[in-house]
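yo, Oxidoreductase is done. seq:
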Amino acid sequence: MLSVAAMLDSLRESPEVDGELVETLDRLIYQPEQRVELLALRVRAALQNNQHLDAAKYMLKLSDVVTMEPASKDAANRIVSDVARQCSLDAWLAARSAELANHMNESDRASVDQWFSDAFAEKLHSPNNLLWQLIRQFGSLEASDLIRNELSSRLEKDQEWLRAYSLQLGNRYATPEQLETLPTQRLFHLAKIHSLSGYAKDALQMIALLRERTDGPDAELLDQIEEATLPLVKTRKWPDTAKVKWEPRPSRMRATMALNQQVSETTILAGQEFQGWRLVSEGAFALALRNPQGYPRGIPLDLENRQRDMGQNEAMIAGGVMIVVTPNALVAVDLHRLDSQANESVLWRHSLSSDDSPLLKRRSNPTRFGDQVFQYLINGASARNLVPTFDLGPILGDRVLALQGGELMSLDLLTQETQWRNSDAPTSGVVLSDGNEVAVVSDSEKRIVFFNLHDGEKLRETAWEHGQIWSSIGEHVLSYLPTGTSREYEIRLFNPFTNKVKLSKRANEANRTNENIPASYGRLVGGRYLTLLDTEGNAAIWDLISAKEISSVTLPAYPDLIGLHAMVLEDKCFLLPMRRPQPSDVPPTSQLHTRQGNDHETTNAIFAISLNDGKSLWQKEFDEPWGCTIHQPDATPVVLLTRGRSIFPNPRVRTRTLDFMALDVDDGHKVNSVMGKDVPSHTNELETQTKLPPGQDLMIVDIGIEKLQLNFDPADDVDDESDVESEASQIGEAIDRS
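structure:
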């Protein structure tokens, strides 16, 4: 008689998984991993033959074996025939249940749902970890709502807000577009979770979506939740003017001890509550999250204390979770706990190398439009045409996707467990997902490879025909390719899952000459917004997540435009154009300084555009350029501008002055300014670091070792130092004018 292993081998190669051989095997098998393999074969055969009820029965039996026999997990590799892929049994079952949900006809659906409902009803008193496992396996089926509702009630009672959020959102984003596809009951649970956890903006957004649904909750119930939520939304009305108080300069010892705030690239993929928050390093905090008022919330992670080069880190926020990429690890942070339980806010740390040594190095490459594209290169890669890269893909409600040098992986959002990995992915590229599939887009290999979201199975491959990748987020990839006309490119926002170009625009490349020629400049802001401005004054803003053109306006034409920077503050986008300096026949006796590092940039004007309706709000053009810190706190009532001036009474002596100006974010009027403030001759700092103390009409601004206050409270008796020009500044400007 054949051994059980031989019989399984024979059955695996047979197109028919049924009959006497199966019955014999069912009696003989006593090892859990062999029973897992037999049940998996029967599930696959039933699905192929459209025997949906049989498939449901075998899937439930398989789930029972996996749950009760931990040793059965070793069988995962036996039921996945692809040598490039590894996946957990939970992930394999999740893929089969999604397949079942998508392919059932209506005549089978009722009986299958009833079968699952009866089985799940018997398990409702099981511990949380078992209910979680069932959700991971069968979350695509409507019947799983029975378990989801029970588990959600427990999590809400225990105030486990992130777990409750993950449970209801599942394999979706928390964007308005994907929330619209969420079943009403789950959307209602999410609204309650956000309201109870204090995420008022997200709760109100979901209540608005629920009001549009015919099967939504009673309007009275939504009114009650909204009434309880509205007081949590904090809005401040700032006065139109402010007094400036320049504080005494600190001692040399205090000045040398000061640690500047370093800002990392932070992308908000989904959610309203953490718009404007940024990953920073400041003082004692090697890693911190800066809130819209400018104050850092420390992230307790000892291993990162030595990594203060924030240019090597980046972060992505989705709902109530943040994933930080460092040179040697991924770090997941529960933002619900960052305030009240900071020591427990780190969910997990996933090392990217076997010995925890730094693996990644962040490098930039220029685009045709003056922007910089950042990539993580993998250290130690052998010299070859295709350099392996790391890319953090989307954060869904239940998982994190990433590409590491040709290996695509899916990590459980809450536990970091590897759900699946597939080494048959491009060596470099960007990772996208629509909630059903994963796509890796590689411009270096000129291909797009699609994978099953649930178990990592490679599905298909198509050609990439859209040029050079600029950026990617969510479901979309931004790229540009030559049109055939000299210096002209087409910028495209492409969705590989629908194979559609969602947005496109033709634009001339940036001007790299000393002459005035037609040119366009583009900047990505927060990983989400593309801003464009050309020499004719045509400006555009795209939302890369929703694939919508927010704005297309005409601004003053600058034939001498040589650059563009931009920043977003709450619901406004600020374009900061830079023009070519005008030559002068008179040798200057003073120098104007407007730029410092990569965070304080030169601008000759400011154009404010609404992100709500795309209209131009206000504009301000300057006779002389200013410098603007492009990472100002989101809640600031003013845009701060600074510039320095070096004056040389004789070649060996330099005096230094500082100009400061604050413009109202709403209408652009000048709130206050200080011109020609004397500062030490060795002072070179221009970048502003701002904090807004809670409950006060006050701004505290640091410019290097200089510190000043903007006091908006008219009742405070503060000496105003605005528009005071130093004697040295007056002399320097008089000489320049002559």
